[in-house]
Design goal:
mainly alpha; elongated; 3-stranded antiparallel β-sheet
Amino acid sequence: MAPRVDDVMRLCCEISAHDQIKVAVKNSTKGAAVAGGAAFVCGMLAGPPGIAVGGAVGGLLGSWLTSGQFKPLPQILMELPPNQQQKLYNDVFAVIGNLDWTDAAQLIALVMGNATLQQQVTAALLNYVTKELRAEVHYHD
């Protein structure tokens, strides 16, 4: 991995750890399918009131099935293949491209010391996670 890509990956890990961001990539789809399936079945059996009951019960069941399935975002980021790391690097570099840094520690210090820049990097990171990875995001446990 190129040093600058590695620096940006470490920055993204630091920001997501600081904000205690967790994501579920595969299991959010399973939870949604359970909720939708329960609403459909109950709707077929009991009509419109069944849809409401099925949606509520399915939502609770889907939530229960996916609870504990969220991983810390730094873990997800470090497991990304190189082509996805490059895509994330490109998205974040669009925000920090005007910065001049020598290593990851300096980059982290520059970004974490500027609230606006930190918010912009966090926004780029979350946009990548939700759009590219199609992940469900949770803050703080």
